[in-house]
Design brief:
CATH topology: Rossmann fold
Distance between the termini: 23 Å
Shape: globular
Helix content: 40-55%
CATH architecture: 3-Layer(aba) Sandwich
Order of helices and strands: EHEEEHEEHEHEHHEH
CATH superfamily: P-loop containing nucleotide triphosphate hydrolases
Largest sheet: 5 strands, parallel
């Protein structure tokens, strides 16, 4: 029996919109969906586990991965750290017919649109910009300078909503997760 390759779904949106929270909810409630683990040069935040939340790598290792074509996409995010999607695990899951989800930033989503034009692109939007600011300040993981940098990036990212195939407003995590899995076409029964 031949397995039909699955379609890749890309979830992107502005900083602090809750991409990681929605992805964690997908991981917890929909184990049939495979979530890509991005590589990053940034240090782990409290509670993050290497290989689960991100693959934390040195700048030299990231350079090697880029040079050897091991990343499906990569970008410098907020002008500081690099993030990228390891290519091989994504291709293996799709070839096996498994639903695959990438949670990435806008720059990465644009690269994936070029490299995998058959992917489905979902924009996760906040209920309002004020709510986005509240979430960023409330998580307490960035200093004032970093928050300002991220909010400036978020303004640019919000303007890209029209580039996506589907928009989900993250006003409730469980509802947003359920909508994401539904538009991915994942069988939940």
């Amino acid at each position: 029996m031949t397995t039909t390759p699955a379609r890749l779904t890309v979830l992107a949106g502005p900083t602090a919109v809750g991409k990681g929270t929605v992805s964690a909810d997908v991981r917890a409630r929909y184990p049939q969906v495979w979530l890509s683990v991005s590589a990053t040069t940034r240090p782990p935040r409290p509670g993050e586990v290497d290989g689960v939340h991100y693959r934390f790598v040195s700048p030299d290792e990231f350079d090697r991965m880029v040079a050897e074509g091991e990343l499906l996409e990569w970008a410098v995010v907020h002008g500081r750290h690099r993030y990228g999607t390891p290519r091989r695990p994504v291709e293996e899951r799709l070839a096996a017919g498994e639903p695959a989800l990438l949670e990435i930033d806008l720059q990465g989503a644009r690269q994936v649109r070029d490299t995998m034009p058959g992917a489905f692109f979902v924009f996760l939007a906040p209920p309002s910009f004020d709510e986005l600011v509240r979430r960023l300040v409330g998580r307490g993981t960035e200093d004032e300078e970093e928050r300002a940098r991220r909010l400036e990036t978020a303004r640019v990212e919000m303007a890209a909503e029209g580039e996506f195939d589907h928009v989900i407003v993250n006003d409730d995590v469980a509802r947003a997760t359920d909508e994401l899995v539904r538009v991915m076409g994942v069988t939940t029964g």
